[in-house]
Amino acid sequence: MCRQAAEPLSSIWRTEPCLDLRLWMTMKHDKRPLFAANWKMNNGPQSTREFLVEFTRSYEHAADRRVIFFPPSISLEAFSLAASHRPDLELGVQDVHAESAGAHTGAISATMALEAGASWSLVGHSERRNEFGDDDDMVVRKTLRALASKLAPMVCVGETLEERDAGRLSEILGRQVAAILSVVEPGSHSLLTWAYEPIWAIGTGRTASPEDALDAHNMIRAAIAATADDQTARNTVIVYGGSVNPSNIDTLMDVPGVDGVLVGGASLQPADFAAICNSSAIGLR
């Protein structure tokens, strides 16, 4: 079987070197706390519509925070239409293919996601890395493709329990961050949002302690500073993702350097995710 050769990284970047000016300005200067829902393989179009009816009853537009949903790709258009009266609810796709188009059965391109209403894309989620074999090189390609197609990437990085126990946390995070920033043009570094997901805490009910989250986020900022510069590191939005729920949201949002959360299981219940998005802890920031 013949496999199509991967497009060179330089070619991807030249396709569209940066996002349009309005999105660029929004991303570059927006440090409002961010609450993101990753629905994974849950909620088809009908469930999406029903969810939004309940969620919008409990969460009213709050100008001091941002809310993003990452539904399955089949539900992107349903979400976009059902939330048309709530422009404050932003929409993203869970993954994009590294190529712009072609014979890639079952995949979705960044352009398709954009046409369906998405403005964000998750890239490098641990489940994509573990189940589908997305290594650092593939994550780089997908990040470039998202940027080239005017999708804002939320790049996921994190460590396994074995890597943490071996004292390799800083090494792993540094490698994953450097792989991206060494290829993305410096002028676009501020367009990247990072999600720290301790893999050992995802879907397990275990949560990193505030000290764990603080250490990891500081390591990510240090890696950004080492590859980019100190100002970029300070201004970059880094969210925490690992068994976030209504009971621990205020504690997590109180941690310095935690700019928001990426929520999995708890985002599937409208009341729970509304409670998370309504966190009062951001008033203390």
Can you describe this structure?
- An eight-stranded parallel β-sheet has the order 7-6-5-4-3-2-1-8.
- The protein starts with 8 loop residues before the first helix and ends in an 8-residue tail after the last helix.
- With 285 residues, it is of the alpha/beta class.
- It has 13 helices and eight strands.
- Helix 1 packs parallel to helix 7, helix 3 crosses helix 13 and helix 9 crosses helix 10.
- Helix 5 links the parallel strand 3 and strand 4.
- The protein has a single domain, classed as Aldolase class I (TIM Barrel).
CATH first level: Alpha Beta
Question: Per DSSP, what share of the residues sits in E-state strands of 2 or more residues?
Answer: 5-15%
The low-pLDDT segments are 1-5, 13-19
What structural category do the secondary elements indicate?
A: alpha/beta
User: Strand-and-helix sequence, N→C?
Assistant: HHEHEHEHEHHEHHEHHEHEH
Rounded mean pLDDT is 90
Major sheet details:
8 strands, parallel
Determine the N-to-C terminus distance.
55 Å
The tally of strands reads: 8
Domains counted in the coordinates: how many? Answer: 1
- Look at the structure and name the CATH superfamily: Aldolase class I
CATH architecture: Alpha-Beta Barrel
Question: Please, how many helices?
Answer: 13
Calculate Rg over CA atoms: 18 Å
Assign an overall shape: globular
Strands ordered across the widest β-sheet: 7-6-5-4-3-2-1-8
CATH topology: TIM Barrel
